[in-house]
Specification:
Layout lengths: L1 E2 L9 H11 L4 H13 L1 E5 L8 E2 L3 E4 L2 E7 L2 H8 L3 E7 H8 L5 E4 L8 E3 L1 H11 L4 E2 L4 E5 L8 H10 L7 E9 L4 E8 L6 H13 L8 E6 L5 H8 L1 E4 L25 E2 L1
Parallel strand pairs: 3-15, 5-7, 9-13, 12-13
Antiparallel strand pairs: 1-6, 2-5, 2-6, 4-5, 7-8, 10-11, 11-12, 11-14
Helix pairs in contact: 1-2, 2-4, 4-5, 6-7
Length: 272
């Protein structure tokens, strides 16, 4: 896709997250929140030429600190930086991070056109991709005791809510509760019910992201996928905190043009 020059937009979620991080450089939660926002945002990656299938050729800029690619969180900001129509690919931040991981390429975000202008070195993109790959373990043991959720980081619940809201149609609901297993092990459990076939991986990844950006390790929470008739469900419903996932979207139109690169999180585009 190619974008024309446009007027600059108002401040974005990334601007606000960047401002909060800049105002408190030592605040780990603010840094985590910025990177979570980056992963959640749609970014417009500047290309040398139009995308060909699943292969992208981004423009690479050789800076003193190392080579970087450029991305912007609005088309207007990309056009404002380039000063002319340029080819680009629209990608979720999480997909771009996985693309750049291990490529020794940093990211120039909103350079010179927004309050959130920042250079993220290659190491930062490797770290972000690693955070996005965190997944909680799937529960195999049956808990002996189920209790209301205990003390959890303040950021976890809204992070879970936001990520599960994007998992429309993958499950009906989930319950978060405290658990104690035979032998004394204890922790927290997030149990999904009504999971559609083969959606477990995507749901576990969403939970892993919420944990990582809330300051919890994936091992701090177990995930379970239960049948609607499972005997645990009444106990979970009595004491657990319920998350309702949105209804699935309407059935898609018949197949048309090939989807844009990066729209399938399981198939990130290739760099060239």
């Amino acid at each position: 896709m190619t974008t024309p020059q446009q007027q600059m937009p108002d401040e974005t979620a990334l601007d606000h997250a960047h401002a909060a991080m800049s105002a408190a450089p030592s605040d780990v939660a603010a840094r985590m929140a910025f990177h979570a926002c980056l992963a959640d945002s749609e970014l417009f990656l500047m290309l040398e030429e139009e995308a060909k299938g699943e292969t992208l050729r981004p423009q690479v800029f050789p800076l003193e600190s190392g080579p970087v690619v450029l991305a912007f969180d609005t088309e207007a900001r990309l056009a404002g930086f380039a000063g002319a129509a340029v080819p680009y690919a629209a990608l979720p931040g999480r997909v771009l991070a996985r693309m750049l991981a291990g490529q020794a390429l940093g990211l120039g975000l909103n350079l010179d056109v927004a309050p959130s202008s920042i250079l993220l070195p290659a190491e930062a993109m490797d770290w972000l991709a690693g955070m996005l790959n965190e997944t909680p373990r799937e529960m195999t043991a049956r808990p002996e005791e189920i209790t209301p959720p205990g003390a959890l980081p303040e950021a976890l619940l809204p992070a879970l809510d936001a990520r599960l809201a994007r998992a429309a149609g993958l499950a009906q609901a989930a319950w978060l509760c405290g658990v104690r297993y035979k032998g004394g092990g204890q922790g927290h459990l997030l149990a999904f019910v009504g999971t559609v076939p083969e959606a477990e991986r995507a749901l576990a990844r969403a939970v892993g992201e919420a944990l990582a950006f809330s300051g919890l390790e994936a091992a701090a929470l177990d995930v379970a996928f239960l049948d609607a008739e499972d005997a645990l469900l009444p106990r979970l419903a009595r004491v657990g905190l319920r998350f309702d996932l949105p209804e699935p979207e309407a059935a898609p139109e018949p197949p048309g043009p090939r989807p844009a690169p990066g729209t399938d999180p399981e198939r990130p585009p290739r760099l060239r």
